[in-house]
Specification:
single chain; mainly alpha; three-stranded mixed β-sheet; 15 helices; 71% helix
Length: 320
Amino acid sequence: MSLFSLNSFYVLAGVFLLATALRVAMDKEHARRWSTALFWGLLGVSFIFGGSVPPSVVGYWVLAMTVLAASGRVAESRERTTSKQQRLESSGRLKDRLFFPALLVPAAAICGSLFLGRIHWHGIRLIDSTNGSVTSVAIGAVLALAAGMRLTRARALVPIGEGSRLLQSIGWALILPQALAALGGLFARAGVGAVVAGLVERALPAHNPFVAVAAYCLGMMAFTICLGNALAAFAVVTGGIGVPLIVHAHGGNPAIMAALGMLSGYCGTLLTPMAANFNIVPVMLLELEDKNAVIRAQLPIAWALFVFNVLLMELCVYRF
């Protein structure tokens, strides 16, 4: 039993999503207010009750949200916010102190992962140790919110209004990482990994240890580019290439393989519009004319990191 469980933060996020749905439903000038409110409402309900209802029910909710998004029924509200002049004045007044709340999130994540999971009283842990890292990130987000409100002296309802506006700016892309991760799990259950392994063995001299490493890293990057999520690609490529060719065939270290394989997948994340939360959402929020501006900026470092990962895995995976 824990005082702060991950589920309590899911409920908190769900309540915020329902508040967003309510704000949309009350906006009479919204062109798609009922369908948009339904989208955010279904997402909020899934966060609150997803762990206590049958998975098939959640699946139907996800299908409904997909239909709403694909049919263009999810639109953004034109909520009032501060003017550009007001934002510039606030930025000039607060200066670098604006970064302090954001830094609380990684600080809480590191401290929580290292220490909070060990704190307990009479059998009650402070946080759930099985999800210590994610729970610590959630605690950091709440602390950052409190610090931001104190720093800016914002009223209590400002985070709801501004958060709702930001959420609607992101739109349906918010659920894309979760959907793609689920797709990766489906691919793994369907045996796509075995098919990939057969193709690699027939097309490449996989008996060469370096070729096995290069095929695994390239597969992680390529599948991540297609799926938009390295976690989704990991289940397929590691089961199809990494384990049979690197670990079983050549005796490689599975821990080193998995760590550097994920880093290779993250190189693919930098190169794909499918990773909408990383590469498309910033373009939308910054109102950039070039929709691929973020990807173009990340392309050189992505390829440099990929080459480094391949060489590092070849150096380490068979020797440690």
